[in-house]
Specification:
Order of helices and strands: HEEEEEEHH
Number of strands: 6
Shape: rod-shaped
Structural class: alpha+beta
Number of helices: 3
Strand order of the largest sheet: 1-2
Distance between the termini: 129 Å
Helix content: 55-70%
Mean pLDDT: 82
Radius of gyration: 40 Å
């Protein structure tokens, strides 16, 4: 059946408590995590990003994770801002090609109009000289 709490007076004075869920003597500064369903020494919080409790044995690793995530954000966010505000070459190339194509058509029409005017002037001068 049920395991009864068998903590000595010394344990109780030292701050030990009985965890009714885990059925173990819980040391001081330990807490029960309802997400992991276990007791954790120096329990800080349950982190959903690493899907684990942050406590005594993995606090340094969690700080490393947070530091690396912040460094990645400090490098990656300006890069994304640059990419979307200034634009990537893949995004701008079709727009530039369309603008250049329209400009080339306008220049070609101007050249054809100028050539027609020159041809008219040459023919007018040729008839005037004769």
């Amino acid at each position: 059946g049920e395991i009864l709490c068998s903590l000595s007076v010394e344990h109780l004075k030292d701050g030990f408590r009985w965890c009714g869920t885990c059925k173990v003597a819980r040391p001081p500064k330990a807490s029960h995590c309802s997400d992991c369903n276990s007791c954790v020494l120096r329990y800080d919080h349950h982190c959903p990003f690493v899907n684990n409790c942050i406590g005594r044995r993995n606090y340094a690793y969690f700080l490393g994770f947070v530091t690396s995530a912040c460094c990645m954000a400090a490098w990656g966010l300006p890069l994304l801002v640059w990419y979307f505000l200034i634009g990537s070459p893949h995004v701008l190339v079709p727009e530039l090609q369309a603008a250049a194509g329209a400009a080339n058509e306008a220049v070609a029409a101007d050249i054809a109009r100028a050539a027609a005017e020159v041809a008219e002037l040459v023919s007018a001068n040729a008839t005037a000289v004769n």
